[in-house]
Design a protein that fits this description.
single chain; 154 residues; mainly alpha; two-stranded parallel ribbon; 6 helices; disordered N terminus
């Protein structure tokens, strides 16, 4: 038991939201079968509450390499700035990943400055988000709408 605990404490995980897979390696090691095995075990006796990431991490246990953190600036929907890799808050990030519940397009969302400053929004999408806050350039002091008047759904 102690050995298992030490392995877990020294284990680095990954977020499968952005992953580069060597499919030949996965096929050769039958990692798809390992993922299915973990899913079957979880179905009988729940092991996690975090969606689909845990079986992938368990299947690839120590068979993965880290990529530059700028390729998956993860946790923008829940992490505090000091928990993020510094490159995630800079302009040289490649992918900003708002995992977590506080998406930038909802009131109280985190890191909205990144979202609006980099033009990651599309007014057509905002028409479906009735509570979406507007960036300062689109908001007017008298407007009660969260969606630009010129936005049209397609």
């Amino acid at each position: 038991m102690l050995v298992s605990l030490i392995l877990i404490l020294n284990f680095f995980a990954f977020n499968a939201g952005v992953a580069v897979l060597d499919l030949d390696f996965w096929r050769m090691h039958k990692l798809d079968q390992t993922v299915l095995k973990w899913l079957r075990i979880h179905e009988v006796s729940p092991l996690w509450r975090l969606g689909s990431n845990p079986p992938l991490v368990l299947a690839a246990f120590q068979a993965f390499k880290a990529i530059d953190p700028r390729w998956n600036c993860d946790g923008l929907g829940w992490k505090k700035p000091y928990d993020l890799d510094p490159s995630c808050l800079a302009t040289d990030a490649f992918i900003w990943h708002w995992s977590g519940g506080r998406k930038p397009w909802v009131r109280g969302g985190l890191y909205q400055r990144i979202w609006w400053h980099n033009g990651l929004y599309d007014a057509r999408c905002l028409t479906a988000l009735h509570d979406a806050p507007l960036p300062p350039a689109l908001a007017s002091p008298t407007s009660t709408s969260s969606v630009p008047a010129t936005a049209t759904a397609r």
